[in-house]
Each structure stands twice: as structure tokens, then as C-alpha cells.
Write a structure and sequence with these properties.
The complex is a heterodimer of chains A (167) and B (181).
Chain A (H helix, E strand, L loop, with lengths): L1 H8 L2 H7 L2 H30 L8 H29 L1 H5 L2 H23 L11 H23 L3 H5 L7
Chain B lengths: L2 H9 L2 H8 L3 H27 L9 H29 L1 H6 L1 H22 L5 H4 L7 H27 L19
Classes of the chains: A mainly alpha (167), B mainly alpha (181).
Amino acid sequence: MHDFAQWLDRTPPSVLIQSSLGLIRLLQAAHLLTAGVVCVSGLVIALRVLGVARRDEPFDAVWRRFAPWLAGGLAVMATTGLLQTLGDPVREFTSTSYWVKLASVVTAIAITAAFGQRLRVSGGAERFPVAAKLGAAGLVLLWLAIVLLGRMIAYDRAIWGALSLRT
Amino acid sequence: MTAETLIAAIENSAPAVWMRGVVAAMPVVESIHVLAAVAIFGTLLVVDLRLLGLRDRRRALTRVSEELLPIAWLAFGAAVVTGALMFSTNAHTYFSNTAFRLKMLALLCAGLNMAVFNLVTRRGVAAWDLSGRPPRAARVAGALSLLLWACVVLLGRWIGFTKGYDFSIPDGIDLDFAAGH
């Protein structure tokens, strides 16, 4: 992985991003603001399943309101995140936080998509199964952890100690 | 007490010494600060889009606010505590940093905007709570709030690009400013 990261680091697209500090800052700024959109959209969907937010609205209405924002935000974050990774592959690939964050994002998307498929029933008085509520509670923690882990990439050894992939 | 002695006192306080001395303190505190900022921006985005009449048009504004503002306030409290801890580590440098000063100015303006909205505009909310198009003053407050909070988050990020650190960095912390992160 380290060899691949070093090879990627020397490719023209990577060098181009590395040479443009303005682009890196723009990517980070866009990634950060979009994290707010994604995190809160994901949280509201999860809180609706938990019965904490928008209890008077059917789950389907909450889904239609927030899922497009979640999907759009994730698309922007994926693009800006990929470009940031391309711009500094060694730093990203040797960060434990980076890989845990990616796994958390995939898990959060899978749980949210499962909610979208299974819980969108008509009517406002849905009673969700315990498994769905447990999934929603996990989802709340995941969305918060994803933002935390994003910032922690810069501090891998201080956060993970011996578990850090950075040498 | 002058500003200089106050800043020196903050920088020499026990929390500041603790922050500088514990390897994981800055990374954890900063990460929580970022999470709090992101949560504030995200929750206010939903409320402000309702104020602008662009989303949740059939849902009462007061209802949208009551659901999300407690999260925003909780996040704001966390941001203040973590921000103060970060400031204390290197108060002199933060205080003289332009991005930090502009961030504080944006925060002040956001607070004033919120105060004017709550004390003046919102007094007549019963008449337009369910309106898909709130009055102009409410829409202006929503637009200003969005703009100012985006500035707060972005200027916060900018501090990291411009501030630098003038204390000795504990072993094990990789600040990596040269790469612009």
C-alpha cells in the first residue's frame, strides 16, 4: 500500500494538485461545509427512526426531504475527498483514521439505504422494529464519528498510537 | 489588566499547560471543535432554508427550529469550550492572527443577526409561522445566518493554514502545515 501511495504521489494529477495550494484549500473548505449537510441530513433520518425528530411526519416524507441532500452531499464529499487523497496519497493511505472513516462511511450509507428500502411505508404512525432503532442509534454514532475521524487524519500517531499505520 | 497581560495569563493557565503537554489533547479537542462547527452549520442550514422559504415550506418554522436548535446550541457550547482550550494553547498567536479576528467578527455578526431576529422579527411569527414565504426581514435573517456561519467555518479552517505554532510541539504530533492541511 505504501509503495502504491508513493507511486500515486508522483503521478501528474497528484503533482498538479500538490502544486496548487489554493486548490487544496478550496477542496478542504468544500469538504468541510458539505460535511455539515451530510451529517445533519443523515442524523435527521436516523433521529426520525428513533422517534426523536419529526414524529408527526411519515418516514417517507422525511426521507424525501433529506435523502437527496444526503446523496448530493455525499457525491460532493466523495469528489473532494478523492481529489484530496490524490493530492496527498501517502498521508491518507498511511492513516488509520482514513481507513476507519471510509469503512464508517460505507457502513452508514448501507444502513441508511436499508432504511430507505424497508421503512418507507405510507401513513404517519409507523412503529419501527427494535433492530431498526438499534441501527438508527448506530447511525447517529457513525455520522458523528465520520466527521471526527476526518479531522483526526492529521494526527494519526497521537490518536492511534501503536495502531497508527504511520511510521 | 491590559490585553497583553490577560493573554499571557490565559496562555500560562493550567488548561493551557495541560493542552500543550498532553500529546492527544490538541488532536481530540480540535476534532471535537470541527465536529461541533459542522453540526452548527448543518442544523442552521435546515432552519435557514425554512426561513428563506426554500425547504420545508409546509412545516411550521417554530417546529423546524424547536427540533434542531437544541442540537445547534449543544454543538455551540462544545465549540466554545474546545475553542477556548485551543486558543489558550497559543493565545498570542491566535490573537494576532487575521483569520482568527475575522472569525470572531463573523461570530459577533451572526450573534447580532440572531438577536435582532429573535427580539424583533420573530415577535410576529404566529402570523407567518406556516407561510411558505416568510416576510422579507425573516428571509434576510436566514440568508445572513447562512452566509455568516459559512464564513465562521471557513475562517476557522483558514486559521490552520495561516497561524503557525510558536510553542514546542510534543513528540508524536504531526502538524504537517507544509502540505496545507
